[in-house]
Write a structure and sequence with these properties.
GO molecular function (chain B): NADH dehydrogenase (quinone) (non-electrogenic) activity; quinone binding
CATH topology of chain B: Helix Hairpins
Helix content of chain A: over 70%
Protein name (chain B): NADH-quinone oxidoreductase subunit K
Membrane topology (chain B): Multi-pass membrane protein
Distance between the termini of chain B: 58 Å
CATH class of chain B: Mainly Alpha
Radius of gyration of chain B: 18 Å
Largest sheet of chain A: 2 strands, antiparallel
Structural class of chain A: mainly alpha
Order of helices and strands of chain A: HHEEHHHHHHHHHHHHHHHHHHHHHHH
Oligomer: heterodimer
Distance between the termini of chain A: 92 Å
Keywords (chain B): Cell membrane, Membrane, NAD, Quinone, Translocase, Transmembrane, Transmembrane helix, Transport
Number of strands of chain A: 2
Number of domains of chain B: 1
Subunit structure (chain B): NDH-1 is composed of 14 different subunits. Subunits NuoA, H, J, K, L, M, N constitute the membrane sector of the complex.
Chain lengths: 625, 107
């Protein structure tokens, strides 16, 4: 029974995918969307069932579906593991997934390929569930690759636009670099322990007879995989470009779920990372730097979705900072709250873009507060949450990260705090430019300004509510999430006792956020400052506006040499090789055309050659003797 | 008795004779265009070798050489049968047995 339910939970979105890909074109758009949504809702409801059951008896549900791989002493099952961690992920993946599917019905309604959109979205949810529920690394890897594929398909969904296709390819290739790390890490683990099953690796690691250097290398490689998927330095550049996809995709894949796969994996393998403090340090430093760099780029972006994209990279950096410091529950907590408010922000920006018929440049927005009140208020709530204002969800999770950082290393704390202040600034910059003062777009757009339909606003409202109360799952007093996740973590993370120091830190974080807001307020409300046109940006701002020229740097460092090498192969090496191959043919041909003259049909000649041959052989035999 | 024969006519004379016969055969094969003559020349070569076999067999007082001759004669007879049959067939098709006319058989 439970097995069947678990299978249904896993396969329901896949059924939706099959239906939409094969029959989606034949049914109406509404039905296509409804089936796509319903299949995900089914998974969500089943996740709730399993969650309730786990809460009751506290026992994780693990089942092996079939023997998968068996090579000498390496044996692997295809198994499902529904424990605290995977259920938590399932809940918000399918929950937010359902809301975003619902939203997409309205958002994508005018698109001719809507059935395809829902097919890909369903496929994504299926792979994400696979990633989460596997009981070994290889099943996770299937999901890991699958979500990458869906991400590629959805970024390039509007495939008639070449830059969008390029963005899709970029995302795919960047992810492949990380995936290689994941694979190597997996191979090392398989070589060390002859298994990839979480529980078996855990007990093997705990026995402590593995080579620590190899273990560290495995952890580092896995982290590189996480870097690719979760857009950390130096592999983050694909995520801002991924905004080429439809906005629901940005919300679901590139903000709430897929990009958190790296955090899921590190948390899943926490027993491994706990034993490799050097790698943990690297994770923490990479996370902190990513948070700071991405936040600073976000300060000056003018595309509404790009701001949110850099904000996502920055928040993911904070999560990795927490992971690197061993505070897995804190990272998971931030993943969840971030999923709520970032999904809401993306969907809100989608609502704005929808209202302006595709306009994404904030310089051409403004004053939308009156025309789109629901969008405004839900986005405002989420912005307050991400900025870390008491008592919204983001305050609690971000504050915990800052506290953990303060406890370990003051420098990391300072970096993270600066990133937080920047977050508050650029998020309110976004809000002020979009919703306040007067409208800066065309007269025609102004005429058509309208609030989005209910299918768009309802998910927004639900997510906004979650962004307010989401912090409740791990309030400093109750620490429900900490206790809930205890069984899957090796090292216990001590809950903070609320003392003077903690209150002071909370105060500092809050003041920092308010400073950011006031700064944005002064600049964009009081002075009415509107970002300049691209050509007028000069100096250091230009460097930041152009994302520190990282893309150009990568182009110079990797793409150009690769292109040069390809060119060299094409223009020099390939013709040379061709000549050699043709040469063999020409020589054989020549020998043949000369040789065939010998066979002229003259028996007399044949006989003469025959006799000559015998004479030669006899002579040779005489000489040889 | 046997030794007497070899005493009367020395072994070297047999060798000279067979070499001469063999060379006549070779030149016949090389220079004549008539297939039947070519055929006869081959027979001369074969018989030259047979003669040498017999001579050495006597010289060495060993019957093995004579046994070989029997084999070689049997094979030669079979070869003649097949060869002549081919020649008859060639003659029926071409009206001549000049080997230069057989050029068309090349691939």
């Amino acid at each position: 029974m439970e097995t069947n339910l678990a299978l249904l939970l896993l396969l329901s979105p896949f059924v939706g995918f099959l239906f939409n890909i094969f029959f989606g074109k034949k049914v109406s758009k509404g039905i296509s969307g409804a089936i796509g949504t319903l299949t995900v809702v089914v998974s969500f409801l089943l996740s709730i069932c399993f969650f309730a059951q786990l809460n009751q008896n506290g026992k994780p549900f693990e089942i092996s579906l079939f023997d998968w791989i068996q090579v000498s002493n390496f044996k692997l099952d295809f198994g499902i593991l529904l424990d605290q961690l995977s259920l938590l992920w399932l809940l918000f993946v399918t929950g937010i997934g359902s809301l975003i599917h619902l939203y997409s019905i309205s958002y994508m309604h005018d698109d001719e390929n809507m059935h395809k959109f829902f097919a890909y979205l369903n496929l994504f949810v299926f792979f994400m569930i696979t990633l989460v529920v596997g009981n070994n690394l290889l099943v996770m890897f299937i999901g890991w690759e699958g979500v990458g594929l869906c991400s590629y398909l959805l970024i390039g969904f509007w495939y008639k636009n070449q830059p969008y296709n390029d963005a899709a390819k970029k995302a795919f290739i960047m992810n492949r670099i990380g995936d290689l790390g994941f694979l190597i890490g997996m191979f090392i683990i398989a070589a060390l322990f002859s298994t990839l099953n979480y529980a078996e690796i855990k007990s093997a690691v705990a026995s402590g007879d593995a080579n620590p250097a190899l273990l560290g290398l495995a952890a580092l490689c896995l982290f590189i995989g996480a870097c690719g998927k979760s857009a950390q330095l130096p592999l983050y550049t694909w995520l801002p470009d991924a905004m080429a996809g439809p906005t629901p995709v940005s919300a679901l894949i590139h903000a709430a779920t897929m990009v958190t796969a790296g955090i899921f994996m590190v948390t899943r393998m926490n027993f491994l990372f706990d034993l490799t403090p050097d790698v943990q340090n690297i994770i923490a430093i990479v996370g902190a730097i990513t948070a700071l760099v991405a936040a600073s780029i976000g300060l000056l972006q003018n595309d509404i979705k790009k701001v949110l994209a850099y904000s996502t990279v920055s928040q993911l950096g904070l999560m990795f900072l927490a992971l690197g410091l061993g505070a897995y529950t804190v990272a998971v907590f931030h993943v969840i709250t971030h999923a709520f408010f970032k999904a809401c922000l993306f969907l809100g920006s989608g609502s704005v873009i929808h209202g302006l018929h595709g306009e994404q440049d904030m310089r051409k927005m403004g004053g939308l507060r009156k025309a789109m009140p629901i969008t405004f208020w839900t986005m405002m709530i989420s912005t307050l949450a991400i900025a870390g204002i008491f008592p919204f969800a983001g305050f609690w999770s971000k504050d915990e990260i800052l506290m953990v950082a303060f406890g370990h290393n003051k420098a990391l704390w300072i970096v993270a705090s600066i990133a937080s202040i920047m977050t508050a600034f650029y998020m309110f910059r976004l809000m002020y430019l979009t919703f306040f003062r007067e409208f800066r777009g065309t007269e025609e757009q102004k005429q058509h300004l309208h609030e989005s339909p209910k299918l768009i606003t309802i998910p927004l409202i639900i997510l906004a509510v979650l962004a307010v109360i989401g912090g409740a799952i791990n309030l400093p007093g109750s620490m429900w999430l900490n206790h809930f996740l205890e069984p899957v973590l090796v090292a216990k993370h001590e809950a903070h006792h609320l003392g003077t120091q903690e209150f002071v830190l909370m105060g500092i974080a809050l003041v920092g956020a308010i400073v950011g807001i006031v700064w944005a307020n002064a600049k964009y409300i009081k002075q009415g400052f509107v970002p300049k046109e691209d050509a007028e940006i000069v100096g250091f701002s230009k460097t930041i506006y152009n994302k520190y020229y990282v893309d150009e740097f990568y182009t110079f460092l990797i793409v150009k040499p690769l292109n040069g090498l390809s060119n060299f192969f094409r223009t020099t090496l390939e013709p040379a090789l061709g000549k050699v191959v043709y040469g063999f043919g020409t020589v054989a041909n020549g020998i043949g055309s000369q040789g065939k003259k010998l066979q002229n049909g003259n028996i007399g000649l044949y006989l003469f050659v025959f006799v000559l041959g015998i004479c030669a052989i006899i002579t040779y035999l005489f000489i040889a003797q | 008795m046997i030794e007497n024969i070899l005493n009367i006519i020395g072994i070297e004379n047999y060798i000279f004779l067979t070499v001469l016969l063999f060379c006549i055969g070779v030149f016949g094969v090389l220079y004549r265009r008539n297939a039947i003559i070519v055929f006869m020349s081959i027979e001369i070569m074969l018989n030259a070798v047979n003669l040498l076999f017999v001579a050495f067999s006597t010289y060495h007082q060993d019957a093995e050489g004579q046994v070989f001759v029997f084999f070689s004669m049997a094979v030669a007879a079979a070869e003649v049968a097949v060869g002549l049959a081919i020649l008859v067939s060639v003659f029926r098709n071409l009206g001549s047995i000049d080997i230069d006319n057989l050029k068309n058989l090349k691939g």
